[in-house]
Specification:
By secondary structure, the chain is of the alpha+beta class. It is built from 11 helices and 14 strands.
Length: 271
């Protein structure tokens, strides 16, 4: 199948992207094209205009700002995988990126494109929520910040307005004693996960956070003090997996239960 006819609008800056998105009733931004490209060819997306933001330099690059890591929306999975940056996550970003699809996909696909596509089984939706990231968004009404855990509203839906662009991902630095775990189950290498569980614990900030993803919609974030000590008890793990907010049934529950056990094993020793 081939995409419907559409017009391509190439822009050079964020203002141009916002203006182009405002000008068209049915417009979609595109960068690496690894998500939207397939949707176009399958006619699951039928925009009248595709706004090419790949040349917007302001959306590129990785930098540190005090205790925060700032990742431009156009940074590729490969750039994160290769780790040539001041990593505030002690290796979690590189680990997650290396498990996304195949190297050819990672060379073109961007972290921002993956987040905005909002596939429930995508890696960055889960990982950024686990890391407590916030997203910098800009539209005609100006800039705003959105917590990663609140960005995705349902499958393939986000809080972005039609004229808004994801600018950057802000990730708080993990402390020296922080621990993290990211586990997923795929039937074969390179495909989307059937289950994802991720955990982050940072004694410096008191954060203990667990994220379940690859659900029917947005990831479920569980965060409270003493969480990982609490889940050392099998009864507590069973109660968590039975919580109605997770809506885990059948084989999916079994997959998440296995991954949860692995994550808890990874998190042992957290103060």
């Amino acid at each position: 199948m081939k995409a419907i006819d559409y017009r391509i609008e190439r822009v050079a800056d964020i203002a141009g992207a916002i203006e182009a998105l405002q000008a068209e009733a049915f417009a979609k931004p595109i960068a690496g094209g690894q998500s939207l490209g397939a949707m176009l060819n399958l006619r699951l997306a039928q925009p009248e205009c595709v706004v090419d933001i790949a040349r917007v330099e302001a959306l590129k690059g990785i930098r540190r700002e005090d205790q925060t890591m700032v990742i431009g929306a156009l940074v590729t999975h490969t750039a994160l995988e290769d780790g040539r940056y001041d990593d505030a996550t002690t290796g979690m970003l590189a680990h997650v990126a290396a498990g996304i699809a195949y190297r050819a996909v990672r060379n073109s696909g961007t972290i921002g494109g993956s987040l905005c596509h909002a596939d429930p089984a995508a890696d960055w939706i889960a990982a950024t929520a686990a890391l407590g990231a916030t997203f910098e968004v800009q539209g005609a009404q100006g800039p705003r910040r959105v917590a990663a855990r609140d960005f995705m509203t349902s499958a393939f839906e986000t809080v972005l307005a039609e004229d808004e662009v994801l600018i950057a991902i802000h990730i708080p630095a993990l402390g020296d004693r922080a621990r993290w775990s990211y586990r997923k189950f795929c039937r074969k290498t390179g495909e989307f996960a059937l289950a994802i569980v991720s955990g982050v614990a940072d004694p410096a900030t008191g954060v203990e956070r667990l994220v379940f993803s690859a659900l029917d919609g947005a990831p479920v974030v569980v965060e409270r003090a003493g969480l990982f000590d609490e889940l050392a008890a099998s009864a507590a793990r069973a109660a968590l997996l039975d919580d109605e907010t997770l809506a885990l049934v059948g084989h999916r529950r079994a997959l998440h239960a296995g991954l949860l056990a692995d994550v808890l094993a990874d998190m042992r020793g957290v103060a």
